[in-house]
Design a protein that fits this description.
Blueprint: E1 4-7, E2 13-17, H1 19-27, E3 36-38, E4 46-47, H2 48-51, H3 84-109, H4 117-141, H5 143-147, H6 162-171, H7 177-182, H8 185-200, H9 204-226, H10 228-235
Helix pairs in contact: 3-4, 6-9, 8-9
Length: about 240
């Protein structure tokens, strides 16, 4: 039985070992790669992998895979934060509506007190400020769209403003000014026909249409003022049409 001496990669020498002892060291991962072996009768040191057929580079220890932590946005929504613009918007809307409700109650209980009229004015101002926060939230949410200027589908047309469209819908809805501004002249003509017919012939059905026209225009005007990004995508990035709502 040969006596083997080994030289480890750090230069330390050990031995003698029998071949069975070296094989046991290898199996126990105590015989590092690139170790050299020598036995009396050999002219020089030889790499273990060249000297023994059973020696191969020891396998790497198994790697335990661990799942990466979930991103905050996907962690069941527990860490999802509400936009400060949206919080301020709902707060101002709640305060404004509350002041108007208080005004309605107080004006019915104490109609002789004129001070209550300031409540509706203050409430309206706060509500419009809430619309401003809704607008900021919408613009922040659509930041990618705002980063690149939105161009009209027609080079010769000017960029339509959601503020102008919203104000036209709220204050000039009887003549369909907001519809003509957006290029929906078909709906604009219908608005004019309904308002003219309601004045000429006070029919209850025409009255219902007139009131419905007012409610729809009011809702649409408020929506455009509060959501400029949605307005731009619908009326600046697409082709206008006579009956486009």
């Amino acid at each position: 039985m040969n006596d083997y001496h080994i030289t480890r990669p750090d230069g330390t020498q050990e031995g003698p070992f029998s071949e069975e002892e070296l094989k046991k060291l290898y199996q126990d991962r105590k015989l590092p790669p690139d170790s050299l072996v020598w036995t009396p009768g050999w002219a020089t040191w030889t790499a273990c992998k060249d000297a023994f057929s059973w020696y191969v580079a020891p396998p790497s220890p198994p790697i335990t895979a661990t799942s990466p932590p979930l991103p905050v946005a996907l962690n069941n929504g527990q860490e999802k934060k509400t936009s400060p613009f949206l919080q301020n918007a709902w707060l101002h809307m709640a305060i404004g509506v509350g002041l108007i409700v208080i005004f309605v109650i107080c004006i019915n209980l104490w109609p002789q007190v004129r001070f209550w009229r300031f409540l509706i004015l203050i409430g309206a101002i706060i509500i419009f400020k809430g619309f401003g926060y809704f607008r900021k939230h919408s613009m922040a949410k659509g930041g990618e769209t705002q980063a690149a200027p939105v161009r009209s589908v027609h080079a010769h047309e000017r960029h339509k403003s959601s503020i102008i469209a919203g104000l036209l819908a709220i204050f000039l809805w009887p003549v369909g000014a907001h519809k003509f501004y957006n290029g929906s002249w078909g709906w604009g003509i219908i608005y004019i026909v309904i308002i003219v017919a309601a004045f000429i012939n006070p029919n209850p059905l025409l009255g219902v249409l007139w009131i419905s026209e007012f409610i729809l225009a009011l809702i649409q005007g408020i929506w455009w003022l509060a959501n400029p990004v949605a307005y731009h995508r619908k009326h600046n990035e697409t082709t206008p049409a006579p009956m486009k709502w």
